[in-house]
Amino acid sequence: MNELDLRYRRWRAADEEGRDEEGDHAFKAVFHAVRSEQPVSPTFAARTMEAVAAAAARDANRARRTRAALVWGSVFGGAAAAYFGASLAISALAAGLLRLLDLMVAVVVGAATGFEAGTDFWSVLTGLGRALAAFAADPTVTIVVLAVQGIAIAALFGLQRLLGSDGESLE
User: Is the pLDDT of residue 121 over 80?
Assistant: First the structure.
């Protein structure tokens, strides 16, 4: 067994047994045994710094090329998306406007015919309830509601973890 291994074992044994003073002295002995007395050659330091400078220059050049590619790709991609997506956006806007107008006409006609037929407050609420139930029965709406509930639960759990419980109770 070599001297370094023996010093290391003494340090570990003293540290594990809780003998702090002896462990500190043993650690100093290990540290001094490991420490090299031979200095690093100047050529090694110069070669290392040259390699670091070359690597930094390569990284900077790669970052500059990547940034330029992303900027030009974003410009051309944005222009293409605007060109090809403009018709879709205008179509969606027109469809939404037509649906809004159709809804407004349906509300006016429904209100006019309802008042002629003598519709009371409760039948209006019944109709609204049926419309709301039909809306809520849509699977997309149900999934969104469940997702919002999941996010709310996660937020409350995170808030509780951040605030912590100080051992207080409601007693």
Answer: no
- What are the pLDDT digits (tens) for 30-67? 887 777 556 777 888 889 999 999 999 999 999 999 99
Q: Which residue has the tokens 């809004």?
A: 100
Torsion of CA 31, 36, 40, 44, to 10 degrees: -80
Phi, psi of 163 (to 5 degrees): -75, -35
- Residue 137 DSSP symbol: T
Taking CA 48 as the corner, what is the angle to CA 43 and CA 49, rounded to the nearest 5 degrees? 100
Q: DSSP string of 72-135?
A: HHHHHHHHHHHHHHHHHHHHHHHHHHHHHHHHHHHHHHHHHHHHHHT--HHHHHHHHHHHHHHH
Residue 63 CA to residue 114 CA, distance in Å, equals 68
| Amino acid type, 21 | E
Neighbours of 26 (CB within 10 A): 20
User: Does the CA dihedral 8-14-20-25 come out positive or negative?
Assistant: negative
pLDDT of residue 155 exceeding 60, the answer is: yes
